[in-house]
């Protein structure tokens, strides 16, 4: 039954008094010591009576889940505090989630392409020169502790531009660089791509020496050649594959010279030479056995100097189509000079005649 009365505040208060029949069926609450608790080991059955406690029943602070389900089946009023199970995921929603998950999977082809566009550069002088010339190309870096004082500027720049770098021990740097001759530092960089012959010609002056390498691919020779080019002011290097100049070994051997050389690419090597000839350049080849002795030759101010691989030199086609051929005389005790050494001798003579 319900009794209604007003308290001191004047507000209406409502009391709900449990019926006598229901009170007799309930025992004392063991936690509070007051009435209202359910007799231990008893629960409501489908017919509204009691059933014995099962062995797998667990003690609960109130009615269990089965009891709430039974109440719902009997049509009793549902509590606003009852737990509502989550609706099953629709097939379309599950498919959408799977599709979203696959979007985060990186395509292996993308990784391979990215790695092909990157190179590892190591060696203290090479990395210092690279940072001064093109810091934006750096992707990641590793240092050993002893070189970090000399790379303070690079470290500050990388931190400010959120470029990842790691200070590691020698063993870790060997793994990162792929060589024991890392010089205490290694960068992962984005490779430069070569420029076209026409782009080079658009900015060339009346005095220009371009070096052309036919089938020269040894990275140590390429590094030595770039070092000589930087020393004698030769900035353009016509090569079939511009990425060869971006190898770690080549850049390290160049000791900073790689940052002063630009790779030039034509449709083919022969097409590139022909384009330079039409632009007024003299095509000069070298030979160990025939040609004008270098120190008796007059090297033009505007020329393309062509060198080939050490074993066979330039191809017959390139040699026959040249405007001029020179030879570096010597004792004859060896067949020829190393291609990087020959480059230094030839460019040194061009510098003496046209720059000195």
Automatic annotation (TrEMBL):
Mark out the compositionally biased spans (Basic and acidic residues).
54-76
* Known EC number: 2.1.1.185
Residue ranges of every copy of the RNA 2-O ribose methyltransferase substrate binding domain listed in the record: 120-195
Query: What domain of life is recorded for the organism?
Result: Bacteria
Question: Which SMART domains has this protein been placed in?
Answer: SpoU_sub_bind
- One GO molecular-function entry: RNA binding
Q: Please state what class of enzyme this protein is.
A: transferase
User: What keywords are assigned to this protein?
Assistant: Methyltransferase, Transferase
Query: Which BP terms from GO are recorded?
Result: methylation; RNA processing
Which Pfam families does the UniProt entry name for this protein? Answer: SpoU_methylase (PF00588), SpoU_sub_bind (PF08032)
Disordered: region residues: 1-103
Q: Which GO terms describe its cellular component?
A: cytosol
Q: What Gene3D superfamilies does the record point to?
A: 3.30.1330.30, 3.40.1280.10
Name of the protein in question: 23S rRNA (Guanosine-2'-O-)-methyltransferase RlmB
Supply the source organism for this entry.
Cedecea lapagei
- Its gene name is rlmB_1
């Amino acid at each position: 039954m319900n009794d209604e009365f007003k308290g001191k505040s004047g507000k209406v208060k409502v009391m709900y008094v449990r019926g006598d029949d229901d009170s007799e069926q309930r025992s004392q609450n063991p936690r509070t010591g007051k009435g209202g608790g359910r007799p231990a080991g008893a629960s409501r059955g489908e017919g509204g009576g009691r059933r014995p406690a099962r062995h797998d029943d667990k003690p609960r602070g109130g009615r269990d889940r089965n009891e709430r389900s039974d109440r719902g089946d009997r049509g009793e009023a549902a509590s606003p505090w009852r737990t509502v199970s989550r609706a099953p995921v629709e097939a379309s929603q599950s498919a959408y989630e799977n599709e979203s998950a696959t979007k985060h999977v990186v395509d292996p082809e993308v990784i391979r392409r990215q790695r092909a566009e990157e190179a590892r550069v190591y060696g203290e002088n090479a990395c210092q020169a690279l940072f001064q010339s093109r810091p934006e190309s750096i992707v990641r870096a590793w240092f050993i502790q002893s070189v970090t004082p000399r790379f303070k500027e690079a470290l500050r720049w990388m931190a400010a531009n959120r470029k990842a770098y790691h200070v590691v021990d020698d063993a870790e740097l060997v793994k990162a660089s792929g060589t024991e001759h890392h010089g205490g530092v290694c960068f992962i960089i984005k490779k430069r791509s070569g420029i076209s012959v026409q782009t080079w010609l658009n900015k060339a002056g009346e005095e220009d020496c371009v070096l052309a390498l036919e089938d020269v691919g040894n990275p140590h020779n390429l590094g030595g050649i770039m070092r000589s080019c930087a020393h004698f002011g030769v900035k353009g290097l016509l090569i079939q594959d511009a990425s060869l100049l971006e190898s770690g070994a080549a850049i390290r051997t160049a000791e900073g010279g790689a940052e002063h050389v630009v790779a030039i690419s034509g449709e083919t090597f022969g097409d590139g030479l022909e384009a330079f000839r039409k632009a007024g350049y003299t095509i000069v080849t070298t030979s160990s056995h025939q040609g004008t002795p270098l120190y008796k030759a007059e090297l033009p101010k505007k020329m393309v100097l062509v060198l080939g691989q050490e074993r066979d030199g330039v191809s017959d086609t390139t040699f026959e189509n040249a405007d001029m051929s020179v030879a570096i005389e010597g004792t004859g005790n060896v067949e020829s000079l190393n291609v990087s050494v020959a480059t230094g001798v030839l460019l040194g003579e061009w510098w003496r005649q046209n720059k000195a």
